[in-house]
């Protein structure tokens, strides 16, 4: 007789993990944004006053807004500025945050004090308020919105990079590399960066959800990309005037924001489970 | 000839703004070609002293003469001196970069020195320490502890050091693997005209390996012993 | 339970990964109230075997056996809840490194008392007395003061004594020690092993001592089991070790360096030859 103890198998559930679901949602999102001209039945900016504020039907799947524009088309096109803005923010913040964090952790002493105090100061600023202030100085628009959001979102990367650099600064393999004559930027980029990068990517993916919300917030307040171009935040804002009678005008872009944010959060969670050895099963 | 001479050397650990002296007034000489042992319980300062000799801790006072030239306190090693002092670390699981293939770990310093036929040197090194060449393109986590320690030994030897520092090179290994590594070190010492300094908490290992040893206690030399 | 009944009786124990890789390939052994050493290199499966006796294997591994009894309990079918009534009570374990095994945020007294809280009901005063008695029994000075100290204030040897006090406080019948000295200084190793030996002897317990250093554990055990690549390849009385016939056991016995072996190479394993024996 063989007695045995095996875990109950949920193998069939394995493909449905957070990472895959997040990945599928993000791919769908990017795909919709890229293929918007092919998929949308109407021009998103053509106004048709006769058809304003129609409820969803077979012709206008998500209904129309108060200028009679097709909401389905506008939501599809609205994914574009959101994704562009989010990518710009990540491209700006990750390198800056990593550089500041690694330098602070590696050099220590005064370099660390100055860089980390700077990080603390920026971190203590309320990010959306500062972004709004910056946009009102720079003028509204996609690029300025990205700059404004980037300005306040790099500190979390810097802090994490510094902590991780500190943890490996005295490791044997870095000491060994130094003994072999590897120093300076070669050590930082060739040896430290590869160890810090995975967690920075995870953090970026997790932050994306928040950045999407912040971008929508800017749009809602009229500080993002300007009308008549479709943007989810400003679409919610214009829909909110009629939210009690024609709820779908605000709800459709709102759900789009929710799903996009959720997609990146799932992706980030899944990446963390995969890349972080501490989450080993 | 003396490879290394220490006179009244004290070593401090500096962390942030705090400094803590852990080794006091050490005098010792290491002759060329000998295996010199540093024994003592953990916390006796033997590893701290080794890290100074490795050029990894510049916070020391006193006089150190290495290869006939005086060292300057407060400075890290550069140039030829950096190359001629190499070390094998205690924990083979922590001393190889986890995200670099072995080939990169081994080749990078040679490239920096501008040496030619790097791949030949690496394969030659693999043969010397008894590893098969198909391991060159693996990552450290794909190797056993003993294999990693062999790679760490090649890494040190590829730079053709005159002084090889061994920081408890076998204390993280199985007894049977320890025997293999100690045999290898003895073989290399005979073939390469190496001077070795070995730190260990195991007096048996020092008795077996060394020609000359000191026992340290609370940062000072307690006993000196020469084997015939 | 009588003294003669066996503490561990295992036949055909297999441990492996979910993908089918076998790590422990069907081993049989039993032990009573005696001191047994389980010796082998890293990767030989000795630690996995020990952990299976504590129900501490990760979920990613499967365990199979024809017969698996621990203190007459059919533990292979046990869930965590049933294990918890055994572990730390009738069977306990000492791990390799006290630095990682002790909780840095709790004082020593609280950690040593924890098995008592879990398995016995007694007044807190009696508990304190028992803790101090145990700390004294493992040779630690000034138990009353030590009780209030934190793990980082102790040396490795003291930490391992604390682990022993914790393991023995419920007077278990079987103690499993997984490389209890390999994180310690050489000078302290023999002290800790001698202490384990005398405590186990006094309490008439069973001891399964896991190590890679055959010579060192031989003095403290009656029997030795040798593992290689997931199999028990040799099994002999400790006195018979100098005359061991298996080449693997011979090499493990003689590979330790000492002053008498200066100038000659140490015996090493002929791994290719061992493959053919397997």
Written overview of the protein:
The complex is a heterotrimer of chains A (281), B (228) and C (278). Chain A is mainly α and 281 residues long. Chain A contains eleven helices and one strand; from the N terminus they run βααααααααααα. Chain A has one domain: Orthogonal Bundle (MetI-like fold), CATH 1.10.3720.10. In chain A, α1 packs across α11, α3 runs antiparallel to α4 and α10 runs antiparallel to α11. Chain B has one domain: 3-Layer(aba) Sandwich (Rossmann fold). In chain B, α3 packs parallel to α5 and α4 crosses α5. The longest helix of chain B is centred in the C-terminal third of the chain and has 18 residues. Chain C has 278 residues and is of the alpha/beta class. Chain C has one domain: Rossmann fold, CATH 3.40.50.300. Chain C is built from eleven helices and ten strands. In chain C, the strands form two sheets. A six-stranded mixed β-sheet of chain C has the order 6-7-8-3-9-10, with helices on both faces. In chain C, strands 1, 2, 4 and 5 form a four-stranded antiparallel β-sheet that branches. In chain C, a hairpin with a 4-residue loop joins β1 and β2. In chain C, α4 packs parallel to α7 and α5 packs across α7. The two termini of chain C are 38 Å apart. The model of chain C has no long low-confidence stretch (mean pLDDT 86). The chains are: A mainly alpha (281), B alpha/beta (228), C alpha/beta (278). Chains in contact: A-B, A-C, B-C. β1 of chain A pairs antiparallel with β4 of chain C, so a sheet runs across the interface.
Write out key terms for the chains shown.
heterotrimer; A: 281 residues; mainly alpha; MetI-like fold; 11 helices; 69% helix; C: 278 residues; alpha/beta; Rossmann fold; six-stranded mixed beta sheet; four-stranded antiparallel beta sheet
Percent helix range of chain B: 25-40%
- Helical run tally of chain C: 11
Question: Rg of chain B, please?
Answer: 17 Å
Strand percentage of chain C lies at 15-25%
CATH superfamily of chain C: P-loop containing nucleotide triphosphate hydrolases
N/C terminus separation of chain B: 18 Å
Overall outline of chain C: globular
Proportion of residues in extended strands of chain B: 25-35%
Main sheet overview of chain C: 6 strands, mixed
CATH topology (fold) name of chain C: Rossmann fold
CATH class placement of chain B: Alpha Beta
Please state how the strands of the largest beta sheet of chain C are arranged side by side: 6-7-8-3-9-10
The appropriate CATH architecture of chain C is 3-Layer(aba) Sandwich
Strand order of the largest sheet of chain B: 6-7-8-3-9-10
How many domains of chain B?
1
Order of helices and strands of chain B: EEEHEEHEHHHEHEHEE
**What average pLDDT do the residues of chain C reach?**
86
